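Lab notebook, page 48
Experiment: co-folding of the full assembly
Goal: obtain a model of how the components sit together before planning crosslinking
Operator: M.T.
Materials (sequences as entered):
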Amino acid sequence: VIVGGTVSQVVKSRNPAVKEGEYIADYAGWQSYSVGGGPGGGVFGVNKLDPNMAPISTALSVLGMPGMTAWHGLMNIGKPKPGETVAVSAASGAVGSMVGQLAKLKGCRAVGIAGGKDKCDYVVKELGFDACVDYKAEGANLHKALAAAAPKGIDIYFENVGGAVQQAVLPLLNDFARVPLCGMISQYNATEFTGGPNWAMLLIKRIMVQGFIVSDHADQTGKFFAEVAPLIKAGKIKYREDIVKGIDKAPAAFIGLLKGKNFGKLLVQVSDDPTRK
Amino acid sequence: VIVGGTVSQVVKSRNPAVKEGEYIADYAGWQSYSVGGGPGGGVFGVNKLDPNMAPISTALSVLGMPGMTAWHGLMNIGKPKPGETVAVSAASGAVGSMVGQLAKLKGCRAVGIAGGKDKCDYVVKELGFDACVDYKAEGANLHKALAAAAPKGIDIYFENVGGAVQQAVLPLLNDFARVPLCGMISQYNATEFTGGPNWAMLLIKRIMVQGFIVSDHADQTGKFFAEVAPLIKAGKIKYREDIVKGIDKAPAAFIGLLKGKNFGKLLVQVSDDPTRK
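Observation: model returned without errors.
Model output:
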């Protein structure tokens, strides 16, 4: 079974702590039914879901792994200060959209980087980022377009993609910049790795780069929920889910993800959701 | 005047706070005499020296900028834990020798990298590192030799040099490794920068890289002195100074530094030191 986070309804239970009909977040992978807690038994150890608090799908998006990834990377690694400029790649995605909105709530300038006019419009008009640069449209002009969108330079670069976007962003980093290094999606299909930036730049500008994987930080889950769930409920943070129906669509959807075709957190719905009528 | 830290005796003073005959640490540059506080007026704002506490030259070595660089980078960025392995390049130098000795005092395995048998012998036999790898002798085998010297991998890499040494070290970094990025001496004469490592490695291993320059951290000076001066006085930290006599020797000495020819903190003595008889 291919691994992956899931939300499910309990069909049968011999465990008195989990009743039939209840909803759980789990890590059951790409399948229609799973047995037990599933491999890993839940990344965050918070399994039961209350469908009255938020749609159960959010346990896979804003209130799940992507949301906590954004929050942990920005808050605990990036440590934004009011007036700073935060840039984020894959800005319309589940992680990126949360990063920019949290940055705005912290009093920062939020600059997104995304592929295509629709995504950039969404990032600025719906999510409230100050600017969004379309890397597909800008091509070789990406660095210039970013410099215009971040006239005071970049203090935090939340890195999701690597590659050409990274090369355009790094020269804009200010002294003492922080780079929460969350993903390198442009590299995941690479057959050989190209070199990264020479570290002399990191030294001269006293830059900090921190690779992280959110599942290492399960101890932060309570703090994340306490801070972010009320913002979701109050409508202060918006989110978008790209729901593909049918497990047979999962492979094509996954390939599309690596090419940036999804718009919002990509979810595969394998059966009806009784909570969403 | 070429910039540089200095220790001097006051020849004339119209400032009642500084008396003729006293000793000061300053940033007066490459000259035999200077006027006033000198440009910058002292990197650490601690100017007067007590020759009875330690030789005045140590204000330029273990109790000055290099010592504090080692201490700040290792303690505040690297955050060593007992049982971890700390590797440091330019290990026989003023910074590197302090890094390894502090690591040992913290209960870590200290692995040095230095150029030549004399330097490596000094690092192990005099300074007490657990191992030292001679990058000049190992050549293309450097990575293998390092792997043998650090059988549990490397948790902290204190980076002074960049280049081929960096390339040999990085694959040995453990998950959650920290890299205080202090210098890139192999690059200082480069006419073009080669690429650094692809960041996918930093992400997968959740590595932190932090460029730093010690003069940004003058607020740590008091803590540094309080922790390190007693260790120097008690002989728990050894140091070596490579003193070249005559300001006319400074250019050749500086060029030699970039080639790794000095052994210990390179100082140029421009006049007699009355405290050292």
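Interpretation: DSSP finds nine helices and eleven strands in chain A.
Next step: discuss with group before ordering constructs.
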